[in-house]
Design goal:
The protein is 40% helix and 11% strand. It is elongated and about 45 Å long. It has a domain of 60 residues: Orthogonal Bundle (Multidrug-efflux Transporter Regulator, Chain: A, Domain 2). Strands 1-3-2 form a 3-stranded antiparallel β-sheet. Helix 2 crosses helix 3. A hairpin with a 2-residue loop joins strand 2 and strand 3. The protein is α+β, with helices and mostly antiparallel strands.
């Protein structure tokens, strides 16, 4: 019974393009993606929030398929602008100088 469920799951993952070989990783979490790219986890989260980097939720974890991470690296993506929606809001202040 367990092997039938495992085989069905593997067939689904192969069909979805999420599995290439039994010993290869399909996806990485945001921390691992950040490490691979040499950026912070917050930067990865900003890319995801800006819909520039596809991701999936599995339980509480956000994962990024390695294939999507490679495609992201091949494309020319601008840096994400932090917004209130993605939780990294920075207030901008303007300093007005009077006549001196």
């Amino acid at each position: 019974m367990v092997s039938a469920v495992r085989d069905a799951l593997l067939a689904f993952l192969y069909a979805a393009g999420m599995f290439t070989h039994e010993n290869e990783k399909l996806a990485v979490d945001t921390r691992e993606a950040a490490r691979l790219l040499g950026v912070s986890s917050r930067t990865i989260q900003n890319y995801i929030a800006a819909k520039l980097l596809p991701s999936r939720k599995i339980g509480r974890r956000t994962v990024i398929r390695l294939r999507d991470l490679e495609a992201f690296l091949r494309s020319d993506q601008p840096s994400p602008v932090p917004t209130r929606e993605n939780g990294d809001a920075h207030q901008q202040t303007t300093v007005m100088r009077g006549k001196e």
